[in-house]
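Section 5.1 Outputs to date
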Amino acid sequence: MTRTAASHGFTFIEMMVVLAIIGLAAAVVVPAIDAGLDSREVRRATLQIAATMRHMRTEAVATGKLRRMRISPSQNAIETDDHSRWAQLTDRALIERIDGGSMSGDGTVDVLFYANGSTSGADVVITSRRDRSSNRYTLHLDPLVGNTRVD
């Protein structure tokens, strides 16, 4: 003898109500999870670029040599002059704008780190590809002392 939902005391209408509730919950939860992933990836990308900038400043001071970090908005990537550090941002995070540094002919921006601890300075705006208005960070690299700050 097979059992059905009706033999357990559930009617067809009750089962449909439960399925509708599950569907509504999924419709609310899935976009919230997706937005959370976007926010996390934008923050992670910003902190990764900031860490690379701190590393480059430390390396320039320690070696006494000029160091350079290249930022490529078109490729959504960063790379150091010795290729020891590089990053390709995920499809959720986007390098939207760079103010400062030295613009190259190919659209990349070089940020310089000097042996005395100063830099060429730059403000890098990283946003979410999906929601550029509310999910954004500005990474500020101070030209005088080389400190990085995330706003």
